[in-house]
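sorry to bug you again but im stuck and you know this stuff better than me. below you get a single protein, a line of residues and a line of whole numbers that encode the local backbone shape. mainly i need to know what kind of three dimensional shape the backbone takes. anything you notice is useful, everything is just below:

***
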Amino acid sequence: MCHINEALKELINKNVNIRVGNMLMPMGLINERHEPTLFTTVQRPSTSKYLIPSTWHESGAMVYGDIIDNLSYKFAAVSALQTGVDGKSWLRDGRGGSFKQTDANMAFVARIDYTGINGLLIGASAYTAPSVNGESSTTNMYDVHVDYKNSGARVYGVYTQTDRSNASDIAANAVEKAQGGYINASFDVLSLTSMNTQLPVFVQYESINPEQERADGTSGDSTETTTVGINYFPHEQVVLKFDYAMASQGTVDTDTASISMGFIF
């Protein structure tokens, strides 16, 4: 496990606090909480690779806190993605990190989460920034996310969309729109017993298209993936995973079996 967070925090009160430095972007469910024990699949969802490109961290300043009890917010000004022209990684390859960008634009990112119902987290995030230097294009990204746990059952998922204005100013075939998301449902079968270990079985459905629309009127193919699998937690900070992913993109079908061990410390 790798923590990518070098920010300094100034804790003022529960309503307003400050963080300055390099930080993970507060988008979606997995980018800030990407440890392998926190999601069921062996690989992170493709949504969290190509659409909300974890692990996505930038330098800047953030204010965060509680608006009221069980309703939290984050707002930050950070270095911007330098988005590519096209291809499925046009967002992912634009991540700046700590040192990659020497002439970065400024971006703004905001998040709000509600946790007032036991076991539920529901919220939304938004991001806006100039797409690249020297062009009039703007990249706008948003997501809605939910994570609900009740006894041995858990359901979590994300839907996200990115729109890029004036994409033709970048290139004739530049991506204008990307969208996708996933929903994951699991149940810990050992929650029905007196055992202290966990054995969740799960199914996940995901559909993404990083090139939903291009400036020249063309588009890429969507990828739809159904994944089934099982986790075993011998300890709450250690997980053994197995899954079987069935993906379809256009006329191409791909089946992949994966196994892994993950831990946090």
Q: What stands out?
A: The helical segments are 47-51. The first helix runs from residue 47 to 51.
